Automatic annotation (TrEMBL):
Region entry Disordered, spans: 213-233
Pfam families named among the record's database cross-references: Lactamase_B
Membrane-crossing residue ranges in chain numbering: none
Lineage: Bacteria, Bacillati, Actinomycetota, Actinomycetes, Micrococcales
Annotated protein name in UniProt: MBL fold metallo-hydrolase
């Protein structure tokens, strides 16, 4: 499995490109702010063609570029997949942001908030299995950071990684290396996050590679042993 990652231009949100191999169809996960050009370079270099976009949740730093990714390029007519409970966020991902922050983004990135939803959006649910781009993806609903936060699990791990793991989880803003997603933003819920960590995250096998929405990759074994937010659960 080929997994490529690069940070967005704001909030260091990780955008992932996942494919069975170079020269194949791929999935784009969490296309954040200002990623379109870098994504084009990555796709060209590895001869990849996007088949769908997966969104771990609906915050603007994870979905900002979803519409151009879904609608730009040769024969681009891609579906964006997002959990049903975060589907409403695609109506206006900036609605919950401070107006001063929106103004700052507009100054830096242009009139980005003349927002339009991607033409094709499919709501996903807990335990759903997706067959996309030659990959099998399982959906795990893990609310707390937002109502519709999910993690995506794929069998196997990226080629060339220096750790032994049997599966890969694209964790969004549920779990980070040494931390977890914040719950003080609109739609956040501390108690729901604690339940998700206990019931969805902790049962993950130690040999699970975690690719978070921000920051470096980690493993479930490492997080179980060292992540202070998982202690006592």
């Amino acid at each position: 499995m080929l997994v490529l990652a690069f940070p967005a231009q704001a909030f260091a949100t990780n955008c992932y490109v996942v494919a069975p191999a170079a020269g194949e169809q791929c999935l784009v996960v969490d296309p954040g702010i200002g990623v379109v050009e870098q994504l084009r370079v990555v796709l060209t270099e590895h001869r990849l063609k996007p088949a769908a976009v997966l969104l771990t949740h609906g915050h603007v730093d994870h979905v900002h570029s979803v519409t151009p990714v879904c609608t730009t390029g040769d024969d681009a007519d891609l579906t964006a997949y997002i959990h049903a409970d975060d589907r409403y966020r695609l109506a206006d991902p900036a609605a919950s942001l401070d107006p001063q922050l929106v103004a700052m983004f507009e100054q830096q990135f242009g009139r980005a908030w003349s927002w339009r939803e991607p033409p094709r959006v499919e709501s996903i649910v807990d335990h759903q299995h997706l067959d996309l781009a030659g990959l099998g993806v399982d959906v795990a609903h893990a609310p707390g950071h937002t109502e519709g936060s999910v993690m995506f699990t794929l069998p196997g791990t990226p080629d060339g990684i220096p750790v032994e793991a049997e599966r890969t989880v694209l964790a969004g803003d549920v779990l980070f290396a040494g931390s977890v997603g914040r719950t003080d933003l609109p739609g956040g819920d501390h108690e729901a996050m604690m339940r998700s960590l206990r019931d969805v995250v902790l049962p993950l096998a130690d040999d699970t590679l975690i690719l978070p929405g921000h920051g470096p990759a980690t493993t479930m074994e490492r997080e179980r042993a060292t992540n202070p937010y998982l202690k006592g659960l």
